[in-house]
């Protein structure tokens, strides 16, 4: 028992290695080399060059957006008369944020005041019912702002010049993992550049000033499509920064899309954007009045996304390891083809795999050859030992499938203490 445990413990210190068989098969060899080239091409081209698998990445971006609009328009309507619209009038909210609204069309109900009014039941939503009804006229009395809203939406946008308004977008981003920060307003030695430039994908791709009309056109719609009934536009700012390169190579890319609708649902209920707000004032007698505006316009959402990467040894090792694993898969596939799908597969299997019974029989034959040599030496005497004729040992060994075992063929010639030992097999 002690010896058994000792053998087991010593066996733990054994080192085992694989036996390699070189198969002279051109078809499988070419297939294996092509597979290796494919894996190497995938690893270098796709993993390292395209996907930058050697980099540690971060997609959690800290971002701040500040917007500023400029432009003036003039309107003249029967309800509100002449009115000059500046950024403080048509931009909501006026302080500038990543989400803002530009008024392009409106309906105004001027000089409303609180009063009791008899109204038809279909407009009772304009106020609070007092529970008094007038049977003669079929109306109910409500406490409301009078006169109630009744205007029709203009068929053409009231602020037709809004398409020439400019939007100045300042975006500040930071990747905290790499302590890297930057702005979309790039440094320039030309002090008048920001006053004169307008964003253009081909000529001024990094200018942060956009024309409203151009932004809408880049979504595939026209200004008239959105200005009359309103809509929602998304302005995407994408930061893809390779921090192994110079900081000047990290620049934003802009994209534009309509968010509230599609071309196939232009007249659906989900299209358009409007809301109401009021402006209050008091007359000389202290009576409170208001002008009610139902405004249509374009909502802009500034959407910021980003990804940064920098070299790191850990993802590099992982990427290389995945490539080596694919190499192993190629070995497995080629082995299956060689051992089971070729015309000589049985020969390759016998060469690659050794059966324990054959190994033991080979050992017995070696031992018999040695014993035969020793007996010959004893018979010939001391003076003749080491000289003389070869010892011939005959064995008839046939493998289970009718063919001579390869192991025995390899024993066809041996040597024992200077004697030639011939092993004949038949």
From TrEMBL:
Glycan attachment positions: 164
Positions annotated to bind ATP: 68-70, 166, 274-276, 294
PANTHER family membership: P2X PURINOCEPTOR, P2X PURINOCEPTOR 5
Keyword hit for Membrane: yes
Organism: Sinocyclocheilus rhinocerous
Superkingdom of the organism of origin: Eukaryota
InterPro entries per the UniProt record, alphabetical: P2X_extracellular_dom_sf, P2X_purnocptor, P2X_receptor, P2X_RECEPTOR_CS
Gene: p2rx5
Keyword Cell membrane: yes
Entry function: Receptor for ATP that acts as a ligand-gated ion channel.
Swiss-Prot/TrEMBL keywords: ATP-binding, Cell membrane, Disulfide bond, Glycoprotein, Ion channel, Ion transport, Ligand-gated ion channel, Membrane, Nucleotide-binding, Receptor, Transmembrane, Transmembrane helix, Transport
Membrane topology: Multi-pass membrane protein
Chain spans, region Disordered: 355-391
Protein name per UniProt: P2X purinoceptor
NCBIfam families: P2X
GO biological process, one term: calcium ion transmembrane transport
